[in-house]
Amino acid sequence: MPKLVIINKSTGTGGAAMAALRLFRAHKSHLKNWDVQFLAQEGPATAEVGIHILSRSRFSKYANLFRLALEKLVFLPYEKSKEIRFQFSLAITGRDISKHSIIEKADILHLHWLYQGFMSIRGMQKLFRKGIPVVWTMHDMWTFTGGCHYTAKCDHFKNSCGECPFLKKPSAGDLSARNFKKKEKLFRKYPEIVFVSCSSWLAMRARESNLLKNHRIEVIPNPIDVDVFSPGDKIAARKQIGIQEDKFIILFGAANVNDKRKGFLYLVKALEKLKAEFSAEASDIELLVFGKASTELPAGFHVYNQKLVTKEIDLVNIYRAADVFVLPSLEDNLPNTIMESLSCGTPVVAFNSGGIPEMIDHKLNGYLAESMNTEQLLKGILWVKSEPADRLAKSARQKVLDNYHPEKISNAYKEVYLSLINKAR
């Protein structure tokens, strides 16, 4: 019985945590005769078999916060502004998990998001020294940059980082360049690590990078539970939230609404344009928002602010209540929110950026607007409003069933796992 260990910083916070947890559950259901375990630093208390949370005591939770604070304190003199504080990770603090009992017994390790106080680059090296085959799913660009999670327009990672736009005083030998060299040394020593991208877009960027260009890189999307995230009664969903039945509901959601990369400002501008130029259309439109937000919500529209949503059933209800989900991300890999919306039969309007075009089939299950083009974003919203809702809902749902079904994703990973296990024998 092959023993697989999935490793992620958390089981409950962030998109990578959700994706890793969904993959764990997919494997539990579809990898027959496999021993599947999940090792995380933190997460909500659970009796779910196979999940191991390292930090259960109050002391260990304080230790987690201390490591994170220490890492950010070290970065503080270098950061360009506080807005990018969590967009750049040094991975200089963390814990050593290499001697954990389930690691010792593992036939294969599957890494996900490890940074910001969970594992340091030195800790990763200790783990790799075990000689256990490693698969590493990339949820952003960190593995092949000098520290940033998304590079925006910077392409220094193709050669060697330095002159970093995230840093206060960029130079050829700056912090990003030094961190890049640490990773270069690490990955050169372990060329057998297989990296997996959730999107073809991110895989292409990784193959262009100096750090990973000689590694095996596969493309396997994240899975989603299609039985949980499924179409349902829109009117019932609206009644539960308190939304009027006859309104056209635009939904926006992100873990952090204030994150500029998620592009909420562009939706606000599109709605302002709608109000100014299409007042008749605007009269029956309302906005539904979920996620951490301190930003100002658009004036002139009734807004249902759901804030942070922690229960899946509440999240499903929100998607079912909406007529369209809008995510004007400037750069994204394979957003869970788009997948969740499509799975619930709600079409999506988004910018044509990152891995998003792989999820949205233009004018079939949603609308792709030119990146940062507010006018096209509004055009997409109005297009969805004018189209038959049943046709869009059916196309949205089918996209998920065809591409992100848990069994399909689990089997794709199984092939990668077995190739490495057989090679190691």
Descriptive terms for the model:
16% strand, 14 helices, alpha/beta, globular, Rossmann fold, six-stranded parallel beta sheet, 425 residues, 13 strands, seven-stranded parallel beta sheet
What does this structure look like?
- The protein is α/β, with parallel strands linked by helices.
- It has two domains: 3-223 and 405-424, Rossmann fold, CATH 3.40.50.2000; 234-403, 3-Layer(aba) Sandwich (Rossmann fold).
- Helix content is 38%, strand content 16%.
- The chain is built from 14 helices and 13 strands.
- The protein has helices at 15-30, 58-75, 101-104, 121-128, 175-189, 200-208, 234-241, 264-277, 279-282, 312-321, 336-343, 374-386, 389-403, 406-424; strands at residues 3-10, 35-42, 51-53, 108-111, 134-138, 194-197, 216-219, 248-256, 285-292, 303-305, 324-327, 348-351, 366-369.
- Strands 3-2-1-4-5-6-7 form a seven-stranded parallel β-sheet.
- The longest helix is centred in the C-terminal third of the chain and has 19 residues, at 406-424.
- The two termini are 14 Å apart.
